[in-house]
């Protein structure tokens, strides 16, 4: 809910010309490098283990993956450099918000620059475009899908930024991801068949079912779901980027495992395709997280949540593992289901469905709104914003581990 | 120079909270439909003549072109419907300007919505994406180039809109098109050879010269040139869109002639490719022109000039007729050469290089600034804004006719 971030912001006029030239907006706080460093250390363990030790991965493929990773490291530093620069321009243009969860404290009066997802999006696109030059394992079908993926993600960033600037009505917002997904749907030349889970084969009567255009409809809906579900599971400092980082890390691990464990070259290609787009997502998101983590120096805007959601939907579709992706999105699915009564209008839906902030104690208390955040707070009791966010990200990570375990146990039995 | 349109605008505060929530900006004037209708009538004569009479074009190809044209007609009406809607949102957000060439008259105080190029860009993308479904003559190489073209144009629209919103420094502005052109450069799998003009073969020593990476550099520079040259040959109501409409019409005619006259299927494919992207450009631009023509109800923004320039560079590159494209751009080249002394800093460069407007007479007088507009005014004397624009568009059309004649006369002799 990026909306909460601009609760009081929209009508505030930008500074008058005289003030702008003599008074410069204060620079944003320095990035939280330690947090990112700790994460990278932690993540590199399973990453390099899977890449080098556990599986015998093709030299060429490994080289492509590492080249991609190297580009991503450069992208991380570039994004980290550009965010403070962009913040000044964005603030100047009136794209800023006030942190509702700090209202009543001095921090609640600070103008926080919005829509910094645009920096992440642009750097991501540059990385993804340049990587084509370095990919040693491409063929013409790969190039079509890759460019269609780039076109879709680029279109989504454009529509997300237009939304952040113009504040389009919510019904249009729901439609935007399906428009952005069009290049993908057009270029998707893969199977529209699904493998029926073994236990259900007797009921369906077939092992493999061709869904045809229904599959494309599913792809379009997946894009709408991924983007909007991240958008509504939001409202705490660092939650949107944090959940993306957790899911993206899980996707990279999943891709590496599938590349290593499989012997089907097409299958490996599909997961390699996915990794080439998720690594840049992860790297640029980490750079954004270093500024967005509690206490947030910048807000991410719908630009970011739409971009992240679309990228993950794209890789899930083109990598042919969208069911696995949906399990990674379990908390988002839960949040969506909890939100349905209010979003559909069945239950009264207030402007914001955030927990209630107490400036005295600094704790958040769960309200009766139907969101995962409030539901969790009602169970565990009042928490500070930072620790609540950590808890929720831990829940996200648990969900991903659960998914890995499920795949392990059901392997062979399920498909 | 879209900057002139926002001469007094960017730092004036948007309306206060009360007026913003109760009303969006005032509605804009109705579109000038008669003008567009007259143009379409005039243009359809050579168009249908070339498509049906003069040449024997294959059924399939002709059908694809006409389906594309039908999509474009729908796109025209969609754009025309969306522009007034978008204007309200854009105005509300503070993206408006004051018409400098009406300063001193009552019209000079009207807030004109800016950056309506975003509507054109989005509708163009939707048309271009959907067309893939209808194209009967597509193969995988075509799809790669097409999707790379879409990615490039989409990226340019994104960067153009970011520029309109955030007002990036001009040095960055120059760089943006080369970044947006990257998907194209990466996907370009065509020849990097040039055919040496016959008279020069003795000097060069070869018939055909392979430029390799220099050709790609040329492609990148062409993108930078096309976008920025339209951007600086601007400042009169309807000039930016008008010049694009004239050049795009010439491109369509050129494509039809080349498709009809050639017997090489690859060559025909290249020109068909170009037509599939230029027809949507033409149609959506005409819709914008109906609002932007004198007196302008909306301004187009850098979003439009960058989008139009990039689309034409893309088709020139992928259609392999970039030298012809440059001759269509002759007035822009002239304007660029005239501007060089001031842009390079050799001669003092004022904030705006527009002609001087006299509110009493309503006429524009040429200043000593180095632009084609001023140069022309110095030659023919003071003119009203509308008639000056018509003159300049006529000069543009003359340049295109000159190009056609040149190709006709030099055919066989040149290459």
Automatic annotation (TrEMBL), chain A:
<dbReference type="InterPro" id="IPR033895">
    <property type="entry name" value="GPT"/>
</dbReference>
<feature type="region of interest" description="Disordered">
    <location>
        <begin position="1"/>
        <end position="27"/>
    </location>
</feature>
<dbReference type="InterPro" id="IPR000715">
    <property type="entry name" value="Glycosyl_transferase_4"/>
</dbReference>
<dbReference type="GO" id="GO:0046872">
    <property type="term" value="F:metal ion binding"/>
</dbReference>
<keyword id="KW-0479">Metal-binding</keyword>
<dbReference type="GO" id="GO:0016757">
    <property type="term" value="F:glycosyltransferase activity"/>
</dbReference>
<comment type="similarity">
    <text>Belongs to the glycosyltransferase 4 family.</text>
</comment>
<keyword id="KW-1133">Transmembrane helix</keyword>
<keyword id="KW-0460">Magnesium</keyword>
<feature type="transmembrane region" description="Helical">
    <location>
        <begin position="174"/>
        <end position="196"/>
    </location>
</feature>
<feature type="transmembrane region" description="Helical">
    <location>
        <begin position="242"/>
        <end position="261"/>
    </location>
</feature>
<feature type="transmembrane region" description="Helical">
    <location>
        <begin position="116"/>
        <end position="136"/>
    </location>
</feature>
<dbReference type="GO" id="GO:0006488">
    <property type="term" value="P:dolichol-linked oligosaccharide biosynthetic process"/>
</dbReference>
<keyword id="KW-0328">Glycosyltransferase</keyword>
<protein>
    <recommendedName>
        <fullName>UDP-N-acetylglucosamine--dolichyl-phosphate N-acetylglucosaminephosphotransferase</fullName>
        <ecNumber>2.7.8.15</ecNumber>
    </recommendedName>
</protein>
<feature type="transmembrane region" description="Helical">
    <location>
        <begin position="273"/>
        <end position="294"/>
    </location>
</feature>
<feature type="transmembrane region" description="Helical">
    <location>
        <begin position="64"/>
        <end position="83"/>
    </location>
</feature>
<keyword id="KW-0808">Transferase</keyword>
<feature type="transmembrane region" description="Helical">
    <location>
        <begin position="217"/>
        <end position="236"/>
    </location>
</feature>
<comment type="function">
    <text>UDP-N-acetylglucosamine--dolichyl-phosphate N-acetylglucosaminephosphotransferase that operates in the biosynthetic pathway of dolichol-linked oligosaccharides, the glycan precursors employed in protein asparagine (N)-glycosylation. The assembly of dolichol-linked oligosaccharides begins on the cytosolic side of the endoplasmic reticulum membrane and finishes in its lumen. The sequential addition of sugars to dolichol pyrophosphate produces dolichol-linked oligosaccharides containing fourteen sugars, including two GlcNAcs, nine mannoses and three glucoses.</text>
</comment>
<feature type="transmembrane region" description="Helical">
    <location>
        <begin position="143"/>
        <end position="162"/>
    </location>
</feature>
<comment type="pathway">
    <text>Protein modification; protein glycosylation.</text>
</comment>
Automatic annotation (TrEMBL), chain B:
<keyword id="KW-0479">Metal-binding</keyword>
<dbReference type="InterPro" id="IPR033895">
    <property type="entry name" value="GPT"/>
</dbReference>
<dbReference type="GO" id="GO:0046872">
    <property type="term" value="F:metal ion binding"/>
</dbReference>
<feature type="transmembrane region" description="Helical">
    <location>
        <begin position="143"/>
        <end position="162"/>
    </location>
</feature>
<dbReference type="GO" id="GO:0006488">
    <property type="term" value="P:dolichol-linked oligosaccharide biosynthetic process"/>
</dbReference>
<keyword id="KW-0256">Endoplasmic reticulum</keyword>
<keyword id="KW-0460">Magnesium</keyword>
<dbReference type="GO" id="GO:0005789">
    <property type="term" value="C:endoplasmic reticulum membrane"/>
</dbReference>
<protein>
    <recommendedName>
        <fullName>UDP-N-acetylglucosamine--dolichyl-phosphate N-acetylglucosaminephosphotransferase</fullName>
        <ecNumber>2.7.8.15</ecNumber>
    </recommendedName>
</protein>
<feature type="region of interest" description="Disordered">
    <location>
        <begin position="1"/>
        <end position="26"/>
    </location>
</feature>
<feature type="transmembrane region" description="Helical">
    <location>
        <begin position="242"/>
        <end position="261"/>
    </location>
</feature>
<feature type="transmembrane region" description="Helical">
    <location>
        <begin position="306"/>
        <end position="330"/>
    </location>
</feature>
<feature type="transmembrane region" description="Helical">
    <location>
        <begin position="388"/>
        <end position="410"/>
    </location>
</feature>
<dbReference type="GO" id="GO:0003975">
    <property type="term" value="F:UDP-N-acetylglucosamine-dolichyl-phosphate N-acetylglucosaminephosphotransferase activity"/>
</dbReference>
<dbReference type="Pfam" id="PF00953">
    <property type="entry name" value="Glycos_transf_4"/>
</dbReference>
<keyword id="KW-1133">Transmembrane helix</keyword>
<feature type="transmembrane region" description="Helical">
    <location>
        <begin position="35"/>
        <end position="52"/>
    </location>
</feature>
<dbReference type="GO" id="GO:0016757">
    <property type="term" value="F:glycosyltransferase activity"/>
</dbReference>
<feature type="transmembrane region" description="Helical">
    <location>
        <begin position="116"/>
        <end position="136"/>
    </location>
</feature>
<keyword id="KW-0472">Membrane</keyword>
<keyword id="KW-0328">Glycosyltransferase</keyword>
<feature type="compositionally biased region" description="Low complexity">
    <location>
        <begin position="14"/>
        <end position="26"/>
    </location>
</feature>
